[in-house]
Amino acid sequence: MRIDIVSLFPEFVEQCAGFGVTGRARERGLLDLHGWNPRDWAEGNYRKVDDRTFGGGPGMVMLVEPLRRCLAALRQADPLPPRVVYLSPQGRPLDQARVRELAALPRLALLCGRYEGVDERLVQAEVDEEISIGDYVLSGGELAAAVVVDAVARLQEGALNDAGSASQDSFEDGLLDCPHYSHPVEHAYGTVPEVLRSGNHAAIARWRRQQALGRTWQRRPDLLAGRVLSKADQALLDEWRREQGRDAPGDAV
């Protein structure tokens, strides 16, 4: 998969993508990352890429022309047509389902805004979709782009040493992940649940499913809103709630 990053600080995303799973994906040739600085396509001695916003008010807006030229060069750099995504607070919230869709694309271009954002005319003419990583404001789109790169990189086949670990992650089936434990068994902070030490794989799978359902209901009830649980899942959740003594999300034990 090829990902192009359009940013005034492309080296930032480049550095973020040099570690862990993302770095391994690049080393294995699964991810091809390229940075593009629109300042290289700006004119004048100062390579101006922003100007004041019409209508008044604080802040600057990134100009159309440097970005247009940059995107034109980006498109010509590879025969594969990119899907251009603008990282923006006004975008569709990023979730695991959308990450899977993006990860399946052969080429992705991420446009990072700065200041008050990008001239709307450029967005309308050149951008395929807008994506937000959360309801908060960042200084620029670089952190959001790094999040997208990391999320899609780990889904490239061969990026993870254990391919099964991705399928067990939070949100993969619409639920939060279950709790996980390691050695030692006994610690001042508590003991590893007996079922996980039992060797009974069916019982372990049942426990993990129940914990995932219970955690989701307790911490992210919005993920279950409108979702029709199977009879087996509903029974597991009901049992978890009785054992925990919880009647509503957020209740204390």
UniProtKB/TrEMBL annotation:
GO molecular function: tRNA (guanine(37)-N1)-methyltransferase activity
Binding residues annotated for S-adenosyl-L-methionine, in chain numbering: G113, I133, G134, D135, Y136, V137, L138
Domain tRNA methyltransferase TRMD/TRM10-type residue range list: 1-224
Gene3D superfamilies the UniProt entry points to: 3.40.1280.10, tRNA(m1g37)methyltransferase, domain 2
Catalytic activity, reaction form: guanosine(37) in tRNA + S-adenosyl-L-methionine = N(1)-methylguanosine(37) in tRNA + S-adenosyl-L-homocysteine + H(+)
Top-level taxon: Bacteria
One Pfam family named in its UniProt record: tRNA_m1G_MT
Compartment list: Cytoplasm
EC identifiers of the protein: 2.1.1.228
GO BP of this protein: tRNA N1-guanine methylation
UniProtKB keywords: Cytoplasm, Methyltransferase, S-adenosyl-L-methionine, Transferase, tRNA processing
Coiled-coil annotated spans: none
Xref: SUPFAM superfamilies: alpha/beta knot
Broad class of the protein's primary localization: cytoplasm
Gene Ontology CC terms: cytosol
Protein role: Specifically methylates guanosine-37 in various tRNAs.
Assembly notes: Homodimer.
Homology family: Belongs to the RNA methyltransferase TrmD family.
PANTHER family (UniProt xref): TRNA (GUANINE-N(1)-)-METHYLTRANSFERASE
NCBIfam families: PRK00026.1 (NF000648), trmD (TIGR00088)
Name the UniProt record assigns to this protein: tRNA (guanine-N(1)-)-methyltransferase
Lineage: Bacteria, Pseudomonadati, Pseudomonadota, Gammaproteobacteria, Lysobacterales
